[in-house]
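Batch job 17 of 40 flagged for manual review because the log was empty.
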Amino acid sequence: CETCSKEEAKYRCPRCMKYSCSLLCVKKHKLALSCNGVRDKTAFVSVNEFTDLNLLSDYRFLEDVGRTADAAARHCIVHSPATKRLLYCLRNKARGCNIELKTLPVGFTKRRENSTTFNSMENKFYWHLKLIFPHCNAEYTLKGVPDDKTLVDILKPYIDPVESDPVVCQRLKIYTTSPQSDVRILMKIENRNRNSVRYNELDASRSLLDNLKGKVIIEYPTLFVVLKTLKNDMVILGQDGSEPAENSDSESSSLSSAEEGEIRDSS
């Protein structure tokens, strides 16, 4: 057992391939690794290891995608005038703030979970926001984040040694014990080729709205919180020596990579 290292393993997780001896250890490993225990149908398999079973799995996966897409196209909400007006309003208000907000069809995971709203009385966005801490394999979803809130204040409940929740602080220990000057907040640049992934570095002292200006957002912002010394292959645009610190080229390309990932999620 890779959890307790005491008993003989009886089970193997379909997702991360970790061996466990009991239901208790299975639950512990899922909690520690944020593992859902569901086999990744899109995991890479080399040609040498590809079998008839993999082919059958891919075939069934494509069938599931087809059924999901068809069900989404038939959904009554797709044709709802109220839904269309709401999405048009969000995109229009975002455009007025120099933000290119793109929405996905009904049935996509990000479309279903997005809770972003715009308050006309306050003239303010309340964003659905996802925080990812890759060094700890942790992610958190925030709802109703006002656009005038600074990134520093948004992160305080997570990585501030004094103000963060004790349970969260323990899970994100590598962040809370590191100097705050080492923390970097990145946002992936959308609509780029998968072999050319780049990130924009955000200014933690400025508001969420200021950081989103001039960016392309698909449904809602996803922020990656990384440490300067451990960010590995997360290349920041303008710091790789080959491209300027702009995302103008990303705005002219298609949504293919984002849509493909969301289709897989929605299945």
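Reviewer: the log was empty due to a logging misconfiguration, but the result itself is present. The first strand starts at residue 11 and ends at 12. Unflagging and moving on to job 18.
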